[in-house]
Write a structure and sequence with these properties.
about 110 residues; mainly beta; 11 strands; about 0% helix; globular
Length: about 110
């Protein structure tokens, strides 16, 4: 089994930098992709960014150009950085493995204007 644990988040001033980390434990070798999803109040969960064990990345249009995702699949770690944070980045951010096969508990991010 795989466990995912997010860290980072909290309060961020609009225009500032948001940094999130995810650490996997257990059967880390099973993880081929790692992703960040977010869910804002009253909205559906949406994909923010994904990285594969081959290094391919995908980022949502809402954060493209102001974000970066990195991962170490041997260590089972992943990071997300969003620059120029906006109030609409406020959400619970979830770490996911293998496109939703595994989920973390989520971490709240609030961007204040």
């Amino acid at each position: 089994q795989v466990q995912l644990l997010e860290s980072g988040g909290g309060w961020v001033q609009a225009g500032g930098t948001l940094r999130l980390s995810c650490e996997a434990s257990g059967a880390v070798f099973r993880i081929k992709t790692m992703s960040w999803y977010r869910q804002a109040p009253g909205k559906q969960r949406e994909l923010v960014a994904t990285i594969s064990d081959t290094g391919n990345t995908l980022r949502a249009e809402s954060v493209k150009g102001r974000s970066s995702i990195s991962g170490d699949f041997y260590e089972g770690t992943m990071s997300l950085q969003i620059d120029n944070s906006k109030p609409e980045d406020t959400a619970i951010y979830y770490c996911a493995g293998n496109q939703g096969e595994y989920w973390g508990q989520g971490t709240q991010v609030t961007v204040s204007s």
